[in-house]
């Protein structure tokens, strides 16, 4: 719960401060509600908007979009990788660095005081690998249709993470993009909502064998 709350809290502080300091809003009272709402809405993949955040200055649109990759908690209707998977990826990465220093050490990955089995860690890495591969393929497919890099990247991110609003041509809506791109993004939404493995398992020959 703490990692889930910490991430949007940090972004919710940074966003209105950046909006005010860059002069995008005339006063902090206007920057505060818009900044906090968009940080929480996009970070939790709720997807509601009170402002055209894609037109915000400096790094804010990309930062907000990146928060959607972490998404909501496991078991929730939120999209993204999920907080627990992201946390385990970080812990596993730290463990591998520690193993470089102490190659013979037994360093377990823990959540709280509970040691997680290696099978769980492998499953998280497997999901992450398929997620990145799916994202990359769909990104290239969208770019092949003529969409620019920002539009293609944000569209795949918004659909695969079940977020909704993107950047570039899909900042307001998806009406202006071509039909093939819409089909690809429809697949991205299905993969994101069913958490990838559920849909991909239907495409494996093993599933259909008696």
Give a written overview of the molecule:
The chain has helices at 2-21, 28-43, 60-70, 83-101, 118-144, 149-160, 179-193, 197-200, 205-208, and strands at residues 110-111, 114-115. The chain has 210 residues and is mostly helical. The protein has 2 domains: 2-70, no CATH class; 83-208, no CATH class. Strands 1-2 form a two-stranded antiparallel ribbon. Helix 1 runs antiparallel to helix 2 (28-43) and helix 6 packs parallel to helix 7 (179-193). The longest helix is centred in the middle third of the chain and has 27 residues, at 118-144. The protein is globular. It starts with a helix and ends with a helix.
Features:
about 210 residues; mainly alpha; 2 domains; two-stranded antiparallel sheet; 9 helices; 2 strands
Concise synopsis of the structure shown:
The protein has helices spanning 2-21, 28-43, 60-70, 83-101, 118-144, 149-160, 179-193, 197-200, 205-208, and strands at 110-111, 114-115.
Average pLDDT, all residues: 89
Rg estimate, integer Å: 19 Å
Shape assignment: globular
Distance between the termini: 42 Å
> What structural class should be given to the helix and strand makeup?
mainly alpha
Which spans have pLDDT < 50 for at least 5 consecutive residues?
none
Into which percent range does the helicity of residues fall?
Answer: 55-70%
Walk across the major sheet and give the strand order. 1-2
Proportion in β-strands: under 5%
Number of strands: 2
The major pleated sheet works out as: 2 strands, antiparallel
Counting H and I runs of at least 4 residues, what is the number of helices?
9
């Amino acid at each position: 719960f703490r990692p889930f709350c910490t991430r949007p809290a940090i972004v919710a502080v940074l966003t209105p401060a950046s909006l005010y300091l860059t002069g995008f809003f005339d006063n902090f009272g206007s920057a505060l509600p818009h900044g906090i709402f968009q940080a929480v809405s996009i970070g939790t993949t709720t997807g509601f908007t009170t402002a055209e955040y894609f037109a915000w200055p400096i790094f804010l649109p990309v930062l907000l979009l990146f928060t959607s990759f972490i998404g909501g908690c496991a078991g929730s209707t939120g999209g993204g990788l999920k907080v627990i998977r992201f946390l385990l990826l970080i812990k596993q990465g730290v463990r591998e660095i520690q193993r470089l220093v102490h190659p013979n050490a037994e360093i377990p990955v823990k959540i709280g005081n509970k040691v997680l089995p290696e099978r769980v860690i492998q499953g998280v890495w497997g999901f992450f690998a398929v997620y990145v591969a799916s994202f990359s393929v769909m990104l290239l497919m969208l770019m092949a249709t003529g969409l620019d890099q920002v539009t293609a990247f944000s569209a795949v991110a918004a659909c695969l993470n079940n977020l909704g609003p993107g950047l570039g041509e899909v900042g307001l809506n998806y009406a202006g993009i071509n039909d093939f791109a819409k089909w690809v993004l429809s697949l991205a939404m299905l993969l994101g909502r069913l958490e990838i493995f559920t849909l991909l398992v239907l495409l494996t020959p093993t599933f259909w064998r008696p």
